[in-house]
Design goal:
Low-confidence stretches: none
Number of strands: 12
Order of helices and strands: HHEEEEEEEEEEHHEEHHH
Structural class: alpha+beta
Strand content: 15-25%
CATH class of the largest domain: Mainly Beta
Bound molecules: copper (II) ion
Number of domains: 2
Mean pLDDT: 92
Radius of gyration: 28 Å
CATH topology of the largest domain: Immunoglobulin-like
Distance between the termini: 19 Å
Largest sheet: 5 strands, mixed
Helix content: 25-40%
Shape: elongated
Length: 318
């Protein structure tokens, strides 16, 4: 996965209608500030030049000026006007970007965990982790929750940042206007691995979204391959099932860690730290603490052969 592409993580890469409003307001404010700077700095330079001590200065006091009502009204009115205009525009943008939710049900529920993200699509009965999809051109209502401490959900090119507060769901609207892969990260310090709590957002066509979400709702078939069956047995025996869920595996229904039902479809492991390959998966489950020290998954002390079998099983879950 190409994580270094700056376009994926720029607020100026406007890919939602909400961010268009926010960036436009930002640019307008920046333009006004630039004009103020040029006027003030220009006057300052001009005045320094004009009122330089003349060669033939006789040392007497210059003409004293006490107050100028017209000037004072002007320099009070102009800033007041600027502040009112920017305040009103900000209020308008806030209302447009964050309209009332009313009784609408969320399309996507994002739950922040130490240190990964859970994504639920309640309308489809789908739960996944660390990577989510949204359809292009549709205004999706996203509810942001937390399972433990305060996190903050921020896909940079989407513009808005939303806190995930325990016990207090928050809402945001996301209306993507451009297809692609966009990245984000937790932006509220939440403990040891706060910096490796990446967000991977895919914006796809409505048709591709339907295909993806329907595939998520399907319980993956477990092949009859001997390694896969061995892997499943080990997975169920090695306490993985105390923390993880795999749909269709009645022993694995725990919700402490990420849902692994369609793990094979994800680009990364551990919320963006490793590329999702069978080799990396085996290394991850043996020693997750070397990749993300402090996380809530212990090193599993598996032999290479066992780790390999479990990796083959999990990677067969498409
Ligand atoms: Cu966090």
């Amino acid at each position: 996965m190409e994580i270094s592409n700056a376009d994926l993580t720029s607020i100026f890469n406007v890919v939602t209608s909400q961010n268009k409003w926010m960036v436009d307001l930002h640019m307008f404010t920046a333009a006004i500030c630039t004009i103020i700077f040029i006027v003030v700095a220009g006057l300052l330079v001009a005045i320094i030049g004009k009122f330089k001590t003349p060669e033939n200065d006789d040392g007497s006091e210059p003409r004293q000026v006490r107050g100028n009502v017209r000037l004072e009204i002007v320099w009070t009115a102009i800033p007041l006007l600027i502040v009112i205009v920017l305040g009103v525009l900000t209020a308008i943008v806030m209302l447009v970007v964050n309209p009332a939710v009313g009784s609408k049900k969320p399309d996507l529920i994002v739950v922040g965990h130490q240190w990964w993200w859970e994504y639920q699509y309640p309308k489809y009965g789908v739960t996944t982790a660390n990577e989510f999809y949204l359809p292009l051109g549709k205004n999706s209502l996203v509810e942001v929750r937390s399972a433990d401490v305060v996190h903050s959900f921020w896909v940079i090119a989407f513009g808005q940042k939303m806190d995930a507060i325990p016990g207090h769901p928050t809402n945001m609207w996301i209306h993507p206007t451009k297809k692609g892969l966009f990245l984000g990260t937790c932006s509220e310090y939440c403990g040891a691995q706060h910096g490796l709590m990446r967000i991977i957002a895919n914006v796809v066509s409505p048709e591709d979204f339907e295909t993806w979400i329907k595939a998520q709702a399907v319980i993956p078939a477990v092949s009859e391959d001997a390694t896969v069956l061995k892997g499943k047995e080990l997975f169920n025996a090695a306490t993985c099932v105390q923390c993880h869920r795999v749909a269709g595996n009645p022993d694995a229904q725990a919700l402490i860690g990420p849902d692994l039902t369609h793990l094979a479809q994800r680009k990364t492991l551990g919320a963006g730290v490793l590329e999702n390959t069978p080799e990396n998966l085996a290394k991850w489950m043996q020693n997750p603490q070397t990749f993300k020290p402090g996380i809530n998954m212990p090193n599993m002390r598996l032999t290479d052969a066992d780790a390999h079998s479990i990796a083959v099983y999990l990677e067969s879950l498409k």
